[in-house]
Write a structure and sequence with these properties.
The structure is a single chain. By secondary structure, the protein is of the alpha+beta class. The protein has three domains: about 35 residues; about 350 residues, Rossmann fold (3-Layer(aba) Sandwich); about 200 residues, Jelly Rolls. It is built from 13 helices and 23 strands. The protein has a ten-stranded mixed beta sheet, with helices on both faces. Strands 13, 15, 16, 18, 21 and 23 form a six-stranded antiparallel beta sheet that branches.
């Protein structure tokens, strides 16, 4: 394609994008058009039926916060956080400013709640680190107003007194949340309290932003413990019914109890992160997502969403666009950001839908966590990558168990490659490391699969059989797992920038000069310039039963197959190169394909006797993909009613 025709095509697609709210466009992709609004549920971001009431609770003596001194409806007692908070050399200055030490820290919060009898589910939100004098807790008012109108109590917890230049306080952030839950537990049974009988303590979600996004995972872990891991002389007695946690652009690894990362179990989890985050510059919440395990018999799910052109601060109305403080405009390229209103609209949609699913059991919203396109008409116009997994997931291959590239996770699963130029397992990397951790690892293994179906030689039309990657199931496993048309084949995948060279001629002509023998990492016929236009990537997904019957579908019918979304945060290229390893973050997209779709393609297929799943690279001459988390899930009826038609 010439530059002129390429520019014309780009302009035409951009015009379409401005006219159609359900159209996605990326210069690296064919456009994705949604045929209809596919989710059979009302807009979770719409104002609800309740009038909204507000109040403050706190010490009643706050030196710097008039609302927590003069306007408290409920006075709370101070708590001793000295075993969890160390102020170091700044102790005198901080104690003088706040008027208290870690031995008597307050429990302050502003609350939005419905004007009704209740009981209502309880949600706590906590901010992250920021200038301690630029108070952060008012910045989630948009969520408070929305959620209270929809029948939730939301308390925005004040932890500004542990903000600023101290470190190692993220355990305290989580502990404070649990102490606030204790207040509500007392109040709901206390005569004359504004919350008497109004709080549903059996339905709780914790939500946090930045360091608060790690703190909610710490709180969920502490909730099940009897002692503080770093000092067992501090007893824990929590045991709240926390059903889910939400992390907004979280850090990870700032708190390392016994030198290890915190692992959370048996809560549903939502995490989202902006590609243009100038503070937490990589999607560290993927690590929390990967460590989360479902080990009980209840239904849980986890979802991770990458929001293109969102930043760190616009999730909070106080923080805004300036991720690096007042000098952000000189350091960061703020022109690339989506508007703050759009960023918060996304948060409203997904947080509200998460609460409806987790606290009210409305599974109609589950499909939007798997595939954002089903709510394309409601979402701001940008691009998204979504990860999704439920507690029903049965893994075939997660690539975590050993160094044998032919073995799967489930006993007896075998992995096979055919005519691949690249086949290797490795650790997924983040774009950058956080300040307290030199590692940029996602702490997650995956498999790289590369191919080039062209035969090396002067005749560029010569093609070999398409390369493939097969996951062979153990005999009888399909029947044992009760696979049916109501089961989904799930995996995560993303394309890379790599284009392997042509494969070796199986019958080489020795009279001709040598060309590439295949398996190379360069682009055939060209260089590796990052601005080179690369062909789109697509592939077929095929299944085979024990009688040899097969059926296949095209992967792009279930979501766009993207290369990583390129991101430039800094104004100057030299600063960008100094801060980041790559121009993109490798975030894999989840694909869920109902086995019923394969049966529709071949009615003779017997999924009860399924013996293999194959990725067949027949839709693009060359390319490379990263694949992970291959397995099966039971298909919820909600998924059947939310299908995106068209590509």
């Amino acid at each position: 394609m010439t530059n002129r025709s390429r520019n014309a095509a780009t302009a035409a697609l951009a015009l379409l994008a401005s006219c159609a709210p359900a159209l996605e466009f990326s210069p690296n992709d064919a456009p994705t058009v949604l045929a209809h609004q596919a989710l059979d549920a009302p807009d979770p971001g719409a104002t609800g039926r309740y009038d909204v009431l507000t109040l403050y609770y706190g010490s009643g003596t706050d030196k710097n916060r008039a609302e927590y001194r003069d306007s408290v409806a409920i006075t709370t007692e101070a708590v001793d956080a000295s075993k969890l908070v160390s102020l170091g050399q700044s102790a005198d200055e901080r104690n003088d400013y706040w008027g208290f030490t870690p031995k008597e820290m307050p429990l302050n919060a502003r609350v939005w709640y419905p004007d009704g009898a209740g009981p209502f589910p309880l949600v706590l939100v906590v901010h992250g680190n920021h200038n301690m004098k630029d108070f952060s807790d008012p910045g989630y008012d948009y969520l408070g107003e929305l959620l209270a109108s929809r029948g939730y109590i939301l308390a925005s917890v004040d932890e500004n007194f542990i903000n600023g230049g101290i470190r190692g306080e993220n355990d305290a952030r989580g502990w404070f949340l649990l102490r606030h839950l204790g207040l509500f537990r007392d109040w709901t049974g206390e005569a004359g309290n504004p919350f008497t009988g109004k709080v549903d303590m059996g339905n709780i979600v914790l939500m946090g932003h930045s360091r608060g996004g790690e703190a909610v995972a710490n709180a969920a872990a502490f909730n099940t413990l009897s002692h503080y891991p770093d000092d067992a002389t501090l007893d824990f007695d929590f045991g709240f019914d926390i059903k889910g946690i939400v992390s907004i652009a979280p850090v990870d690894g700032q708190y390392l109890p016994t030198g290890r990362k915190v692992a959370t179990e048996n809560v549903s989890y939502l995490v989202f992160h902006g590609s243009h985050d100038g503070d937490v510059t990589s999607f560290h919440g993927l690590r929390i997502y990967n460590r989360l395990r479902f080990t009980d018999d209840d239904f849980h799910f986890k979802s991770a969403i990458y929001v293109y052109r969102a930043n760190h601060g616009q999730w909070n109305t106080v923080w805004g666009a300036h991720d690096n403080g007042p000098r952000s405009g000189r350091i960061l390229d703020l022109r690339t950001l989506i508007p703050g209103e759009d960023q918060r609209r996304f948060a409203e949609l997904y947080v509200s839908a998460f609460l409806e699913t987790v606290l009210r059991g409305d599974k109609r919203y589950l499909p939007m966590f798997r595939d954002h396109r089903v709510v394309g008409e409601w979402l701001p116009k940008t691009m998204y990558v979504t990860r999704f997994e439920t507690s029903d997931f049965r893994p075939l291959a997660t690539f975590e168990e050993d160094i044998d590239v032919t073995s799967g996770t489930e006993a007896g699963v075998r992995l096979r490659g055919d005519s691949l130029a690249v086949w290797r397992e490795a650790t997924l990397e983040l774009r950058s490391a956080n300040r307290n951790n030199t590692s940029a690892s996602q702490e997650n293994q995956a498999v790289w699969l590369g191919w080039n179906n062209r035969i090396a030689g002067a005749d560029t039309t010569r093609m070999g059989p398409p390369a493939a990657f097969e996951v062979a199931l153990p005999a009888g496993s399909a029947r044992r797992w009760a696979l049916s048309a109501g089961t989904t084949l799930d995996f995560t995948l993303a394309a890379t920038e790599n284009l392997p060279g042509p494969r070796a001629d199986p019958v080489p002509d020795t009279t001709k000069s040598e060309e590439s023998s295949g398996g190379g990492r360069g682009r055939p016929g060209g260089g590796d310039d990052e601005d080179d236009e690369k062909p789109p990537v697509d592939l077929s997904v095929e299944v085979r039963d024990a009688s040899g019957g097969t059926a296949s579908v095209i992967l792009s019918a279930y979501g766009p197959v993207r290369r990583p979304l390129k991101t430039t945060i800094s104004r100057r290229r030299d600063q960008e190169n100094r801060r980041f390893q790559t121009l993109w973050e490798m975030v894999l997209q989840t694909y869920s394909i109902p086995l019923g779709d394969f049966v529709a393609a071949n009615p003779a297929l017997d999924v009860r006797r399924l013996e293999a799943v194959r990725l067949v690279f027949d839709q693009a001459v060359a390319g490379e993909v990263v694949v992970d988390q291959i397995g099966f899930s039971d298909l919820d009826p909600a998924f059947l009613s939310a299908r995106v038609e068209g590509r």
